[in-house]
Amino acid sequence: MMKVTVKLFAFLGERLGPAVEIDVPKSVTQAALKDAVLELDPALEATLANSRVAVDQEFVNEDVLQLSEASEVALIPPVSGG
Question: Is 75 part of a structural domain of the chain?
Answer without folding.
Answer: no
